[in-house]
Design a protein that fits this description.
heterodimer; A: about 400 residues; alpha+beta; L,D-transpeptidase catalytic domain-like; Nuclear Transport Factor 2, Chain: A; 10-stranded mixed β-sheet; 10 helices; about 25% strand; B: about 325 residues; Serine Threonine Protein Phosphatase 5, Tetratricopeptide repeat; 2 domains; 4-stranded antiparallel β-sheet; 11 helices; 4 strands; about 45% helix
Chain lengths: ~400, ~325
């Protein structure tokens, strides 16, 4: 777990870290391009205020840092990391030698947690997503999604992407806390956060929940179809807030949920559409220029269109060739059973019409060569009509061909 | 004392009535001093010197809220004077309102950046605020901690170097009876002369030649190290057989209590800051120091005085007192 400890293998003490910070100051320290003091404090995010204070400290301006931290702890008295830094700057400025900093006690788990949070926030400020890049996992987002959420689990970060007619743009990012044992959930009780692609299924306001969940909760549809393929168990994976006694929780604190500051959770309220909004929980977010995903997007769209073509032309054998040998339906048919079923059904049909719309395409996190295609499928035949929302998992086979390995349908 | 040009105060020494009141104060007759000042201020309500002295008397009489109002009014009427801000800060700090205390000291320093007393006091306020911030950072019990820091601060008030009050014995704001004339900017610290020795404090530190006396300080350092290391036997070995515990405990009961407390698990640090050693007589010495103690739950500083005896050949502690 200690992915980012000091070279000595232990969390750094503040004084040491100050030296490290100064050394690192030659790196470009990308502060958000806010107009600094020109903006009223409540428009600056608490995290940005914290980073400005760190920046002031790095520049040797401890009185500037003190002022910023003072304003910050006044605004967010439960921002524990800010209090720690504030205490440290005060202690140094007091000039009194006797005050012992909690940072001197690196065995204290509370101190370690705060240092972990500090490193996570600083890492984001220093090496967050480059400008005009997007998470490579979103190949296509249909215009009916105004927003998508991407969580970079190891980096304790949640991003919101805005979708304007298929053109994405990162519009928000938040510090987030994940499960105590990290990510890659397999079993109920393993205290891990899942890696996968989910959707927000609803919203429960904080008043209807124990105080522990803070401003409210957005449940996710874990375990999804792919999780079930892998026999993953557990439930109750939510995005939720924090109790009012704290501003945030440490980077690794929950039992599996993704936990945000209450103000950030409230901020999501206007962006999330329950039942719709996709949430990518990723073990590694790769940020690429928008056009870098184009090739794979076109390849997948072409492939899906070819599959639809074989289906509507009732070319059943060619259609079945799009399915992998280990394909399973969501109601338990294997490839042979599915093939027999399709042959029987298609035999009686003279005419099949299939229309696909609202296509989303994601490369699946935690997997090599897996793409999730989600679309609305309007099916009409001589004697039957149905609209469904389909989740289709495509895997690139060793021969380079993309094949369907799992399908799941939701009625609309 | 001269007043700085541009001051709102007349360039005169304190009015005779105020000087009288100051004499009464120095004699400990605060009620009469207050009466005298009240009569005087009835006819000269704007006299800053008189009002300042009245504030000090009110502090002596424990009428803190009135004293705060007096100094606050002075800061409003004479914002260029740093001393009322400083005293206001000390009173706020006594009430545990460190943030207001900080604001007042910063206001004093805004007009008088070299005001040494305000700097020292600000250091203490910062350290108290730091303690409170640490507690909030680590989510320690807020109620208990607030009380603890308040107590720690009161202990620091008037406890020598870095303390608030120039008067060494009590937690008094700046401005001892002898120097009530408000200081000119040129010697901003005039109102806060160096603290006289506290009652328990020793005379000046011994000259370096007195190596034996250095041994007494070394013994105190050894004692603190043994304590910090939780080496109970070594810790107790620094005490003389005839050591008299403070607070009426028997020697045996005290030792049992110390064994239990010093031996408790958990990391602590004990620091001896600014030790001052002096002779009492041929075999006895006194060491006064600031004791910085910190554990997972406690972090405080007190002024401590220990008396040591070397008639057995090495320095042993015979008395240990915490002074306020």
């Amino acid at each position: 777990m200690p992915a980012s400890v000091s070279p000595a293998g232990r969390p750094l003490r503040f004084k040491l870290r100050c030296a490290a910070l100064t050394a690192a100051a030659v790196l470009s320290f990308a502060l958000p391009t806010l107009a600094g003091s020109a903006l009223p404090a409540d428009l600056t995010k608490p995290e940005d205020q914290l980073l400005e204070a760190v920046d002031a400290l790095r520049g040797g301006d401890s009185s500037g840092a003190l002022k910023k931290l003072q304003a910050l702890v006044q605004r967010e008295p439960n921002f524990r990391l800010a209090q720690l830094l504030y205490g440290q700057v005060l202690a140094q400025r007091s000039g009194l030698p006797g005050l012992v900093s909690p940072l001197a006690d690196d065995r204290d788990p509370h101190v370690r947690e705060l240092l972990d949070e500090y490193r996570a926030r600083l890492a984001e400020a220093e090496s967050g997503p480059p400008a005009s890049t997007l998470p490579s996992s979103i190949l296509r987002l249909s215009p009916d999604h105004r927003y998508a959420i991407v969580a970079d689990l190891p980096r304790s970060r949640v991003y919101v992407l805005e979708n304007q007619n298929g053109r994405l743009r990162q519009v928000r990012d938040y510090y987030a806390s994940i499960a105590r044992n990290g990510y890659g959930k397999q079993n109920s009780g393993d205290l891990r956060t899942p890696v996968g692609i989910y959707r927000v299924t609803g919203f429960t306001p904080g008043v209807k929940l124990p105080p522990f969940y803070g401003a409210g909760a957005y449940p996710l549809n874990y375990p999804n179809a792919w999780d079930r393929v892998h026999g993953r168990t557990g439930s109750g994976i939510w995005l939720h807030g924090v109790p009012t006694t704290t501003y945030v929780r440490p980077p690794r604190a929950s039992e599996g949920c993704v936990v945000l500051a209450n103000s950030d959770l409230a901020d999501l309220k206007s962006l999330i559409v329950p039942g719709m909004t996709p949430v990518v929980l990723s073990d590694k977010v790769e940020w690429l220029p928008a056009d870098a995903m184009e090739k794979q997007r076109e390849e997948m769209i072409k492939r899906i269109e070819a599959w639809r073509g074989k289906w509507t032309s009732l070319n059943t054998e060619a259609y079945l060739a799009f399915y992998g040998d280990d394909f399973h339906t969501d109601d338990g048919m294997n490839k042979a059973q599915f093939a027999a079923y399709k042959r029987r059904v298609n035999q009686g049909k003279k005419r099949v019409q299939v229309q696909l719309k609202d296509l989303d395409l994601f490369t699946y996190p935690g997997e090599q060569n897996l793409v999730l295609a989600e679309f609305t499928q309007d099916y009409k035949s001589d004697n039957f009509a149905m609209s469904t929302r389909k989740e289709q998992y495509w895997r690139r086979e060793p021969d380079g061909q993309w094949k369907i390995v799992r399908e799941e349908n939701r009625t609309l | 004392m001269l007043l700085a040009a541009g001051s709102a105060l007349p360039a005169l020494a304190a009015a005779p009535a105020v000087q009288e009141a100051q004499t009464l104060m120095s004699q400990g007759d605060y009620k009469s001093a207050l009466d005298r000042l009240d009569r005087y201020l009835a006819s000269s309500p704007q006299d800053a010197e008189g009002r300042f002295s009245r504030g000090l008397v009110l502090v002596k009489l424990n009428r803190t809220d009135e004293a705060i109002k007096t100094f606050a009014d002075l800061t409003r009427d004479y914002p260029q004077l740093p001393e009322p801000y400083n005293n206001l800060a000390v009173l706020y700090a006594q009430k545990g309102d460190y943030e207001k205390a900080r604001d007042a000291l910063e206001a004093a320093l805004a007009t008088h950046p070299a005001y040494a007393t305000a700097h020292e006091n600000l250091g203490d306020i910062y350290s108290a605020l730091a303690g409170a911030a640490y507690n909030r950072a680590l989510q320690l019990d807020q109620g208990n901690q607030a009380v603890r820091y308040k107590l720690a601060l009161i202990n620091q008030l008037g406890s020598g170097p870095g303390g608030y009050a120039p008067a060494g014995t009590t937690s008094l704001p700046a401005g001892s009876p002898k120097s009530e004339t408000l200081g000119p900017a040129a010697s901003a610290a005039a109102v806060a002369p160096p603290p006289p020795p506290a009652p328990t404090a020793a005379p000046a530190a011994a000259p370096a030649a007195d190596t034996d006396l250095q041994g007494a300080t070394a013994a105190v350092n050894g004692w603190a190290q043994a304590w910090a290391a939780k080496d109970v036997n070594s810790y107790l070995s620094y005490y003389a057989a005839d050591f008299q515990p403070d607070g009426g405990l028997s020697r045996a009961a005290w030792e049992a209590q110390r064994r239990e407390r010093v031996g408790k698990p958990g990391r602590i640090s004990v620091r001896v800051l600014s030790p001052q050693a002096s002779r009492i007589d041929a075999h006895r010495a006194r060491v006064t120091f600031i004791q910085g103690y910190a554990s997972d739950t406690v972090n405080d500083r007190v002024k401590k005085t220990v008396e040591l005896n070397n008639s057995s050949g090495s320095w042993k502690i015979t008395r240990e007192t915490i002074s306020r």
